[in-house]
Amino acid sequence: MIRHFQYKKICSGRDYLQEHYTDSFSLSKVAEYSCMSQFHFSRVFTNVFGESPNTFVTRLRIEKAKKMLITKNLSISDICAEVGYSSVGSFSSLFSEKVGMSPSQYRRKLRSLANDPNCFPMQSIPLCFSQNLFGFGGNQIKK
């Protein structure tokens, strides 16, 4: 059972991670921000949110990278740097492990789905989601 003041500290640490996930990850810095020891912060964070702080940051970075791969025309190395990784190889390996395909395969697959309306029925996708995901304007969607 977690006490209310501990929950507030953990939530402030989670909020800090969400705001600074592109920075180099330092558990000591986040724990200090939350006024807790590293070990205690990590243990309570994992108990409350079901994943470690490192896993949480990795998930945020991969989700941001997935979105950028679809919506931006940046290179893989630029996206790698934008989400906080310094090594393209490490980023690609981690992305492949989490998503099941390389970043370039992911980009090609999602873009091919967007270009083939018979493969991906646009009528079943909310307009705001398709605009965000595929970068379509309202007049470009085929019915």
Automatic annotation (TrEMBL):
Question: From which residue to which does any coiled coil extend?
Answer: none
Under Pfam families, the record lists: HTH_18
Keywords (alphabetical) are: DNA-binding, Transcription, Transcription regulation
Check the record and name the InterPro entries matching this protein: Homeodomain-like_sf, HTH_AraC, HTH_AraC-typ_CS, Tscrpt_reg_AraC-type_HTH
Q: Which domain of life is it from?
A: Bacteria
Q: What region holds the HTH araC/xylS-type domain? A: 11-109
PROSITE patterns the UniProt entry points to: HTH_ARAC_FAMILY_1 (PS00041), HTH_ARAC_FAMILY_2 (PS01124)
Q: Provide the protein name.
A: AraC family transcriptional regulator
